[in-house]
Structure formats: C-alpha cells, structure tokens
Amino acid sequence: MNKTKRFCAIALAAMMAVTAFAGCGSDGGSSTASNGGGSNGGSGDSAATPTAPVGDTVADPLYGEGENGTIKLKVWGPPEAQDILKKQCVAFSEKMKDYGDVQIEVVPQGEADSATQVLTDAETAADVFGFACNNINKLVKAGALLEVTGAEKDLVESSNSAESVAAATVDGKIYAYPETGDNSYILVYDKSVVSDEQAKTLEGTLEACKAANKKFAMDAGNGYYSCMFMFTGGLKIDGYDDDGETQKFTDYDEATLVNTMMAFSKLLAVDYKDTLLNGETTKVVDGFKSGTVGAGIDGSWNFASAKEALGDNAGFAILPTIDVNGTATPIVNMFGYKLIGVNSQTAYPNTSIELAKYLAGEECQQERAEKLNWGPSNTTVAESDIVKNDQALTAILEQSKNSVLQVSVADTFWTPVGTFGNMIVDADKPLTEDAAKDLIKSTISNVRDE
User: Fold this and answer.
1) pLDDT digit string (tens) for 75-102?
2) What is d(CA 416, CA 222) in angstroms, rounded to the nearest whole number?
C-alpha cells in the first residue's frame, strides 16, 4: 500500500471512532475465503451498487478501491479453530457478495500471542484478530484497536454477558467484540474415581484420589492457576497504579488470607502430599489417558480432550470449596474472555468491523459451542440446549460468577505468583503462620517490583 492509501486508511479508522456508524499452536496453514465474485470491476460507481450493510457515514473503499476491485482481509485465529474459522469466513464472504468481492485469508495465530504480533508490526498484522482479554489495555494504549461505537456498541452490550463486556472495555469505552465466555479453568475428574458429591470439596476430591491410588494434578507453579490461593483468601488484583503499569491489589484481611494459605498448604503439602501431582496442565489429560490421574485443575481448551480420554466418566464441576477454620470456602479463580478486535490500521475498516461482528455473533458462537465446546459470551447461546446439556460448559459459566476478571494484569504478576504457589505446596516446607505472612508480603512486593 502506498503512503497516500495508508494515510487514508488511518484517517478512516480515526473517523470511525467518533462517528455513529462504527460499529491459538499447530501449523494448520492458511486459506483464503471468497464469494468468488460480486466486484464492480473498479468503477467506484456506488449509485449503481447496493448499499453496504456497514453504515453510510464513512464508506469503505468497497467498490473498486481494493486490488483489482477486491477487498482482501487477513484474519488471525487459534490453530485448533482453523477449520471452523475458515468455514465461517467463507459464509461471511457469501453474505457480502451483493456488495463486493471479499476475500479472507485465515492464518493460525494463538490468542495469547496475537497482541504481541500486532504491536510488533500493526501494518502487516491481521485486519481482524482474536486475543485474550488481558492484552486489551496494551492494545488500546498503543492505539491498535478501533473503538466499538454506535449500533455495534449497543449490540455488544445487549447480546453478551456483563462480565465479557467489561473485559472488552477500557476507561468506559468498548474496544473489542466478546468471542467466548470460558477462558478459565475448573475441576475436571474421573467419575469412576471421584463422585459428583466428593467433587464439591477439595478435601473430598483429594481423599477420593488417594483412596484409588490416583493423582490430583494441577500447575501450582503457574501464576495463572496459583493465584487461586490468594484470591480465595481475599487478596485480589485491582488494576494498576496511576502509572498504568504497577499492579494494584485490593485491601485484605491478613488473618483470613494467612489462614487460607495454611489450609491449602496443609492439604496439598502435608495431608495429601503424595497425591498431588504438580506440573504443567498437560499432566491432567495425559494422566486420564494413562489411568494415573483421578482429578485435576484444567482449562476449557482441554475439555474436549478430557471427554475423549474419559468418555462417559468425564466429570466437570466448578472449583470445589476448601475448609478454612471450619468454613467451607469457595475457591476463587482468574477468569478471562477471548475477544475479537479490529486493527486500527486496516485499509478496510467497515468490512473488518462487519466481519468481527459476524464472527463474534450468535450464529458463530453457537457453532463453536457445538463443534469446539467453547463457552459462549452471547447470552442467547448461553441459554441454549447445547450449553445447558453440557456439564463442562455449564460448570465453566457458573465458575465465572466467582472469579476475578483477567484484565489489567501486570507482566510482573505471573512469575512471583507462580513461585508463591510452589511454596504453598512444597512438601518439605508446610507453611507456618509467620512463613505465610512473610510469603504474602514478599509476593506482593515482587509483583509490584518494589
């Protein structure tokens, strides 16, 4: 693209932010979806062409301004969703055939890394891309996302859960389209080992695994999972300090937090130290396959694999309670959402917005729930039979009600909190009260990089 066209593209993107119309590992390869025609051959005569469904304040160069009269978009999505994403992009191109020839290249790119790639080189990045909600602040700060405004904003707010909308919001403005409502983890268990009743408590789950000579697997050294220890005790993240970078925490009751840490430590580092299998979450499904694991903490992205490994014995439940000084205390986790954003430097903002809106819409979320077992953010799909009759999706959506939103998480958070988790479950060093106090203080200081 020459400098003039690039300037116009950026100008279009900026105008869209203030006008009423604006609205994941394997190779997989890429593919191009197209309706196979519909272009006006470059005449640019919109009077003779149907009005595009993307609004009329600012028109995309949809009629002949693309290369040889064709709009070419690039979409990034996770490797495991490539087949469905390609199918959905073909369907979108077909819907657009009366307005122009829209060709879409689908490229595998995990949501965890897509933001980094966009920030590295926005001009060559995808026009539309999926990303994890914890990256939204840095993308907005860099000006990499088109704001969602007007009718598109109303649609996002009215059709998605309040939590997923909050995850797409920065400083009161929406910058992305919620794609899923399941980016988190719950208890996954073998029903032949752990009963549904035992799965309600951590004590019951561990005892069932021990009795069957099976392991309880979790990644206590990963801050994404070990944060449940502090969150359950009342210490939670609360955005950033005024500098926009330093992690801020909520106020907490030291005695409650200390008692909670000691309860986790007693169970995992003392009473059931030989039952705990601490390591990467791949150990959960791998253990189900080998018959060595009875239960574990695992994420929604592995639900399908767990079902395949356990068959009719696959069990899913919200995170269990833990007994803290005689009180059954629900375990609180970190809960994120997958979002779809529009690159602010796209040459075709209107078409990109339409595509993002379509991919994040009810029809596509329903299909992903059916085919990929992805939990929806769309409230209509969340009430559908495909979700209500699925134990895994029901559990993950229920867990979202007792969780901490995965946004505004500092880069300095993960390593210290992972170390914190390992120290809690260290079989050689069960926590004392004084040790728990020191560990909490040092972890907070390290996260805040003080």
Assistant:
1) 999 998 999 999 999 999 999 887 778 9
2) 9
